alanine--glyoxylate transaminase (Fluoribacter gormanii), 446 residues
Amino acid sequence: MNEHNDSIQLRSNEELTNFRKKHFLPTAGFYHKEPIQLVKAQDTYVWDSEGKRYLDAIGGIVCISAGHNHPKIKKALIEAIESDAIQHTSLLYLNQAPIETAERLLEEAPYGMDKVSFTNSGSEANELAIMAARHATGETMVVNVRHSYHGGTSAALASCGHSIWRFKGQPVTGVTSALEPYCYRCPFKQKPDSCDLECAKNVETTIQNSTHGKIAAFILEPVMGVGGFITPPDDYFREVARIVHSYGGKYISDEVQTGAGRGGSDLLLTKTLDIDADMVTMAKGLGNGAPVGAVLMKSEVAETMTGKTYFNTFAGDPLQMIQSKLTLEIIKEEQLVENARAMGDLLKDGFSQLQKKHPLIGDVRGRGLLLGIELVKDPQTKEPASDEALRLMDLCKDKGLLVGKGGQFGNVFRIAPPLTINREQVNFILETLDQSLSELSDAYTP
């Protein structure tokens, strides 16, 4: 048993699983055939209830940016609690912590964004951005992209491009979907070298044919997370922003997963890609695991909300803001954006080499430490290898590596480790994946 748990009486995995089955909603499964109970974490590693260590290559579902339990964050939170610092205030009262976090965010904001609003999650951030766009324009229609995901609240989920996330009673009025900028499975049957950005032009066609000619907003992730880290071409964003603005809409850049330096270039990919966005939403890596979201907004959008009240009970709470502020500081001080780029390049190159060896790998894509490996049964037909993905995840887990999955058919490995990952750990990921792919191939060979 891990020494961390010597004084804690842990319930068995079976007991926890049975309770969840009996009393939790039947909407969330497990990543593995035999679930593991995670009890401890430090930097890039997590430990289960049996004391086994794993490299966390999904970063707490793309949340851990500065590393699990960073000593600077731990020290600050302990000091705040021991000094009886106020834990909850709401923005109805003044407090220094949300101001300091906002200052650091605005230092990294894309040009023209000078307003900040905090939330508790990415879903809430996108909900606020959509509401602000509708209020500012006087229009209701939001254009999303198939395969996208923007959260579990009403307006955000209405723009979800995956049937498994959608519920029968989920209202989907006031939204329409453009075709996806999915190069590996291009809906226009194009190749990157012959592409004429038909996917971007389709946004205009969608507006012309599925709206009355004016829209409230267009929303898209720079890298489509739940969709399987789909990575649109760079030129796509500029063309779409031009189209969106020409039809009166506001461009919402959803950086819930891509933000906080994970893209390996700037704190926000919106800035790197020079996306002419009106709002940027964040969460996940912003709080390094704390329930924090944010919306960066241009004044021209924010000022239209004058005279209205928007209130979020827990947004801007001091302890969450302390953690977010320090996360942003650590990312800068420890040059984690640069590390995300360097380690991401090594991983991507390594995955591309594995692709030549293992036909199960159909596509390798992503930016920085947001990397997707799409698994297919046949490189020619591109039939999704969903069952193989689950088996491969278990093989990796058995060797001490945790990865995520996504995509319409659950056949895309999602690699998003903490931004603190080093070269030795990159090599471990590549070697473990190589070995597991070989074992899987042997198991499926007649």
